[in-house]
Amino acid sequence: MLGRIHLVRHAEGLHNLRNDPTIPDASLSERGYDFAEDLGHRFIREYSNCVGAIISSPLRRTIQTSLTAFPRILDSTQYAKNSGVGANKGVMLALDANLQEITDLPCNTGSKVVDLTEQFPGLKSEIENLNKNWHKKAGPDSPLPQPLSKRRTEILNRLQSTLTDLKNKSMGKDIIVVTHQGVIALLAPTANIPVGQWQTFHLVAENGELFLK
């Protein structure tokens, strides 16, 4: 076993609430924010001081879920000044375009870098590290690895690399991954994680391949 991975499915989005996939890059619903906050309280009770990294899809609802659920873990500089989050030196939220939802429905299609930076100024440097075409799912301008099996491999390789880095630091060793149902099915096909919930796995290497078990 290489390390522990907590797969989090984003909390309720407006597209879930309204059953409307045409909402562009859907944000959390008001109830979704409550669900995300509750998720964070429950997670901390079980895994206090265990987390060394949080990696999120760059879609709005996953960023919002991450910031809402984990203010006790994340560094407070990533929050808006009027957010009410107290000073806290913690983990820096990382964004990974490979964690975005699989389909190209409007609700699952991300926003341009400039728009995300405007909404999440505390994450400016991380957002600007994204490829400018990160949200394009296919075609010659898409930076996403194709086929999906290659995307799965790149995600697992990043998790392995992150776990290796964490072993050299005096902080938590677990990784939280905040993502979507399609990506969860790609990484852990037997998982059944409702919105606003998580499931814990171990990253293992077998016969030269990486798996979540």
UniProtKB/TrEMBL annotation:
A Pfam family of the record is His_Phos_1
Kindly state one GO CC term assigned in the UniProt record.
cytoplasm
List the CDD domains: HP_PGM_like (cd07067)
Q: What are the protein's GO molecular function terms?
A: phosphatase activity
* SMART domains referenced in this protein's UniProt entry, alphabetically: PGAM (SM00855)
Q: Which PANTHER family match?
A: BROAD-SPECIFICITY PHOSPHATASE YOR283W-RELATED, PHOSPHATASE SPAC5H10.03-RELATED
Could you tell me what this protein is called?
A: Histidine phosphatase superfamily
Please tell me the species this chain comes from.
Aspergillus pseudotamarii
